[in-house]
Amino acid sequence: MNDFENVSTDISGYVTMIMHTGKYNFDTDEIEDGEQVARRDLKNLIVNRSSALLSAAVLPKNNIAITHLAVGVGNEDGLMPIEDIRYNKLIKEVRRVKIDRYGLINSEGKNASLDFPDEVYGAVLKASLNLSNSDNGKELVEMGLFGGPGADQPNSGLMFNYKSFSNWTVP
Q1: Mind listing the pLDDT tens digit for each residue in 64-91?
Q2: pLDDT of residue 8
Q3: Residue 77: which residues within 8 A CB-CB, separation 6 or more?
Q4: Do residues 129 and 43 lie in contact, with contact meaning Cβ atoms separated by under 8 Å?
């Protein structure tokens, strides 16, 4: 049984979050010198402003792409925020990092390639976020993917998706 056996391949998308110790090896999909602490497979919410990101991506000489992943603590009450497609930023962002490595996983849980479009249908974007020791004890309840101008700054750039989830405390 692979990790995506029970995940639908419809176009609404899913987000898989894995919290772990050690280092994640992108090439082998394995955790090195550590272990998986928790895993969540969640339905994704694509927000309204993502249409601006997608539209700009097709313009000639425009290099807009999803470049950053952010996580937040919501209203700081430990409760899962209500998702809304009108959001353009996290409620309370605590960490944003540049995505320096991307990958695609097909519906069978295997690495997919854009060179083979049939493999990509229903594919999952794979990205990694390393939290620092200063994040320990924070109760994460929201995440988002960002791109475009200003995406490297908290609460700015074009937000592509928003996902809230039940409290996930960073160990």
Answers
A1: 778 898 999 999 887 889 988 889 999 9
A2: 35
A3: none
A4: no
> What b/e sequence results for 126-145 when a residue is b if at least 16 CB atoms lie within 10 Å of its CB, and e otherwise?
bbbbebeeeeeebbbbbbbb
One-letter identity of residue 115: D
Q: What is the pTM of this model?
A: 0.72
Within its chain, how far is the Cα of 63 from the centroid?
Answer: 20
* Residue 103 phi, psi (nearest 5): -160, 165
- Any idea what DSSP says for residue 35? -
User: Could you report the per-residue pLDDT of 36-50, keeping only the tens digit for each?
Assistant: 877 777 777 777 777
The secondary structure of the chain in percent helix, strand, coil, rounded to multiples of 5, reads: 10, 40, 55
For 5, 66, 137, the CA distances from 59, given in Å and listed in that order, are: 36, 15, 43
